[in-house]
Amino acid sequence: MRQYPRVVVAGLSGGSGKTTLSLGLIRAFRKKGLSKTLAFKKGPDYIDAAWLGAASGGPCYNLDPFLIGRENILRSFTSRSAGFDISLIEGNRGLFDGMDLKGSQSTATLAGILKAPVVLIMDVSKMTRTAAAIVLGMKNFEPGLELAGVVLNRVAGARHESMLRQSIEHYTGVPVLGALPKMKDRKGKEKKSSISERHMGLLALKEHPEAEAALDRACELVEKSVNVEAVIEAARRAPRLKAPAQQAAGKRKSEIVIGVIQDRAFQFYYPENLEALERSGAALEMISPLSEKTKGLPDIHALYIGGGFPETNAIPLSKNKAFLRSLKEKIEQGLPVYAECGGLMYLASNIEVEGAKHPMAGIFPFGMTLEKRPVAHGYSIARIREQNAFYPAGTVLKGHEFHYSRPQRIFKFKTSKKKADNDQDVRFALEMERGTGIENGLDGLVYKNVFATYTHTHALGTPEWVRGIMKAAEKFRKENG
What we know:
Helices cover about 30% and strands about 25% of the residues.
């Protein structure tokens, strides 16, 4: 049993201010001497996690009950938090929002697994005493929850704050740890966040023109408005945890080299996935087709293309024709390529943005177009319906999908063994049991040794992903030297 100072930041809903509070707290912790502050994110999220990692000065790891399971949550948290001064875990959606009537896989579920105190941030616009009723309900809704305090958001002024504090503390006994004022832009109009937003989350870290300044603003806001010491004390009061038996540490020896396309166009990677590949013996080589110096693929045995925003980088991606030719040539030679979401888009014939079509790798005989609303969003479960370079038939993948893109033309299949309505041997290998996929409940497009999917997987919850990539890479290495 060891002490792991920790706190969960939760909200009443998505967009409640959790990330701004979390970023400010992490920076404030570090300024108070807790230099070893570790960040975690609950839920299928890459953008918030990147910001949290930037605030902490290290990786932000994922703790999601659906994606990785209870045992892996405890193992990952305790192994990574050992030796750190404090850990902050940002929840997702509302505190009790889960996958079903019982709220399974919720932020409250995660807090219970970790026996972690919860700091709740709540939007108090146009309310006073009603806020106390909400907090009382949150406090008593599920047994075992430790609600360590509340941070008020979008407070109108000193009088508003005073009425809220008195009501909440009198009727609930839950301390008010801070009050964030309404933020206004230069024109005096209210804004929800000090960090720009895109789609349903924050603007990606690598695309923000003033990321460091935005983190400083979040820290300044929290230092002025929140009792940071009280949050630290709550984290230190968290009960001791018994760490599960750890898996064998150390890296295996291997000659495998796996390329990873990682830049502002392709930035959605769980650090656990990259670490899992390295632990399995792979050397990772980071590649960026956005760099003018990158004219082609280096000598690698497999390629991993994660998600991101290829649509906002479509022009420079399409201009690097040398890299696109090299990628297509290597794929024709049998290079194993695992592509997720944005990676799938990159392998299409083109990406259409605002009426203009930008040529891509042309591995799949269709273009991609962007919708104004999400085409798919949420957890997914998919079953491998036929053998491919990475997974045996019958493998079940648990993951998530979130995309605005869709293919410009629909494939038509009569059976899983039939080819698509084109002259290439392209087929679907995944059948969606939960989620949308690419088309008609199908996902996982396969061409030669390429596997391209909208489904993002997490290595801790889907170890078959790591084994599949290593197996495909080893086979390619042996056959090609």
